[in-house]
Amino acid sequence: MNSYSYLQMYQINTKDVKSYPIEWNKIFGNSNKSIVEIGFGGGEFLVNLAKENNNYNYVGIETSLTSCHKIKKKIFLNNLNNIQIILEDAKFAVREFFSDNSISKVIVNFPCPWPKSKHAKNRLFDEKFLDTLSSVLEVDGEVILTTDVWTYASEVKEKFLSNGCFEVKNISEIQQLPFKTRYEKKWENEGRKKYLLIAQKRCKKEIKRLLEGEINLPHQKIQKMNFDKLQSLVGFKKSSKNKTLVIKDIYAKLDGSEYLVKVFSEDDRYIQSYFVDVIKIKDGWLVKLDDIAKAYRTPSVKEAVNIIAKELEN
Ligand SMILES: C[S@@+](CC[C@H](N)C(=O)[O-])C[C@H]1O[C@@H](n2cnc3c(N)ncnc32)[C@H](O)[C@@H]1O
């Protein structure tokens, strides 16, 4: 193996999964429960945890590609087979990729508290995410949060209490984490204190997932294309309660046999940008989600394919 081959390993390509939620026990080849770390940063905590206790499967979720590269190197150097990582927003990933009652612990070390109200939408622990946690954690499963901001710990505690499905077991100052993280060091150097909050699941809320079961490539066939409509699709916008889609642009193949429609869409605050392909076939046109620039087949993505087909049908 050359020195960078590990970059192809340990990461689930979540857009290529055949059905959701992901069957983690098949991936790990055992029946262990999962421990999930959100925002693992340099990966120090998750890698040491996985080294110490082999009775769990460990899944790390990050939005930073650099962090994913860093942890993969550590997993490889430690020869661990009990960690997989996901490059994705944790609010989406925890809800869509984990089944009910399947996680033992969710660990979050030093998340950004996003204190300004204009950034509130970036905060991890919102009402919907707490509902997700109540669903995916096993009974008595725990959320373990470490933060350097006391007001943040107190706010999150209040959110857990008002959710009604959690008992807050602990909220206190701690001296150190079992394994030091990069941000723990950083805040220690600045003389900041550390606080630990543990919330334990007591009951479960029903949640609605966007991706569930087998996900087929959305497609529609049309007999005859209205070429005037094709041009006017740019700028098309449709919004409903939890879905928005906007057609941004259209690219054509020189011989006119294929068009790529660039779409932005949003489901429940999860934004995706992708292409819908309109291709000439023997007896008409095929409108389908382009399978190269991958997108999750969420309700708004399926709707985009249907709307484009309907608008273009002559
Ligand atoms: C302040 S750093 C803490 C990193 C690490 N836990 C530590 O203690 O050193 C927060 C990390 O969370 C990640 N992050 C932020 N929002 C996220 C989200 N919605 N889903 C997954 N990771 C997220 C960031 O990329 C960043 O690496």
What characteristics describe this protein?
28% helix; Rossmann fold; 2 domains; 9 helices; binds S-adenosylmethionine; seven-stranded mixed β-sheet; alpha/beta; 314 residues
Could you walk me through the main structural features you see in this protein, from its secondary elements to its overall organization?
This protein has a seven-stranded mixed beta sheet with strand order 4-3-2-5-6-8-7, sandwiched between helices. The chain has a six-stranded antiparallel beta sheet with strand order 10-15-14-13-12-11, covered by helices on one side. It has a two-stranded antiparallel sheet with strand order 1-9. The chain has helices at residues 24-28, 44-52, 65-77, 90-97, 127-136, 150-163, 182-189, 227-232, 299-312, and strands at residues 19-20, 34-38, 57-62, 83-87, 103-109, 137-147, 166-174, 194-201, 213-214, 219-222, 237-239, 243-252, 258-267, 270-281, 284-289. 33% of the residues are buried. The chain is an alpha/beta fold. The protein has two domains: 5-201, 3-Layer(aba) Sandwich (Rossmann fold), CATH 3.40.50; 216-312.
